[in-house]
Amino acid sequence: MIKIKNLSYHYPDGSSALDSITLNIRKGEFVAIAGKNGCGKSTLLRHINGLLQPSEGSVTVKGIDTSDRSKLQEIRRTAAMVFQDPQSQFIGMTVEDDIAFGPENLGLPSSEIKRRVSIALESVGMSAYRYNTPRTLSGGQKQKVALASVLAMEPEIILFDEVTSMLDSVSRMDMLSLIRQLHEAGTTIIYVTHLLEELVLADRLLLMKKGCITQDGNPRDIISKISSGSFGFDAPPIIELSKKLVDAGIIESSFLPLSKDELLEAICRLK
Predict the structure, then answer these.
(1) What is the spatial distance between Cα 208 and Cα 23, in angstroms, rounded to a whole number?
(2) How does pLDDT run across 192-219, given as a tens digit for each residue?
(3) 198: three-class secondary structure by DSSP
(4) Which of 2, 125, 166, 267 has most Cβ atoms within 10 angstroms of its Cβ?
(5) Phi, psi for 31 (deg, rounded to 5)
(6) Contact at 8 Å (CB) between 3 and 24?
């Protein structure tokens, strides 16, 4: 569905943000991209929907080369993006106006636009706020509206760029739950984060460093290595605790719990 071949991206000063990346992403995959700030993960994401153009190499989405500027609208309709700061996506006076903007640009009839807005709002649990102004919403609500604006375009691929980094813990869990539901419904998810505890949702993890993909595989396998400090990441407290319990022989070493629920389940199995 997404094919990236020898992708490099250079800044005007000549420094590299991406270095010869080759990557294929299949339809329906949930791919997480992690790494420290400045590793190139957000830059990679922006190449997938044509916000940035390769300095070298190519990116194709459903067979369409992102360098074909005449096809950018089609690409962005297929691969839509939710940004870290939802405020940057708001353009309407009301929530309804904001969500309707994308479908209106597609030239859809008003009845279809209203249908899409209603479905999108219901999908994110924001129907009651249809006529609110975005500035009256909480951070979590704003991010849900930003997601609804994307859903109204009915994309096959959704790109998430650190969408939980500005949210409180409750709003973060709400957003992650919505993303999980979208994946279960068949949407291809590409999720950028620097929070390792969120990676367990994905079925594939790309670890980036200095513009390169250093690891590509099963999140559990990679995170287990990260928890040892071998990649320079600080593991989340829940993983550190799990590792200490494994090292102490309290829980089995064959399955390292990576979330609170998994750790509780492992503890409950103790005899």
Answers:
(1) 13
(2) 987 777 888 899 999 999 999 999 999 8
(3) helix
(4) 2
(5) -110, 120
(6) yes
155 CB burial (10 A radius; 0-12, 13-18, 19+): buried
Residue in 171, 162, 180, 99 with CA at minimum distance from that of residue 139: 171
For tokens 């994946």, name the residue: 183
Q: Specify which residues 188 forms β-bridges with.
A: 157
pLDDT at 24: 97
Residues contacting 163, CB < 8 A, separation 6+: 82, 83, 84, 143, 146, 147, 175
Per-residue pLDDT, 139: 93
- 224, two tokens: 């287990």
Distance separating alpha carbons of residues 26 and 125, to the nearest angstrom: 29
Q: Helices (DSSP H) in 49-192: which residue ranges?
A: 72-78, 95-105, 110-123, 139-151, 169-184
At residue 65, what are phi and psi to the nearest 5 degrees?
-75, 130
Chain centroid to Cα 260, Å, comes to: 21
Count other C-beta atoms under 10 Å from residue 4's C-beta.
22
Tokens of 62: 């459903």
29 three-class SS: coil
CB atoms within 10 A of CB 271: 2
Task: Tell me phi and psi for residue 147, to 5 degrees.
Answer: -65, -40
Q: How far apart are CA 107 and CA 73, in angstroms?
A: 13
263 by DSSP, 3-state: which? helix
Closest CA to 147 of 114, 171, 170: 171
Distance in angstroms (rounded) separating the CA atoms of residues 169 and 13: 39
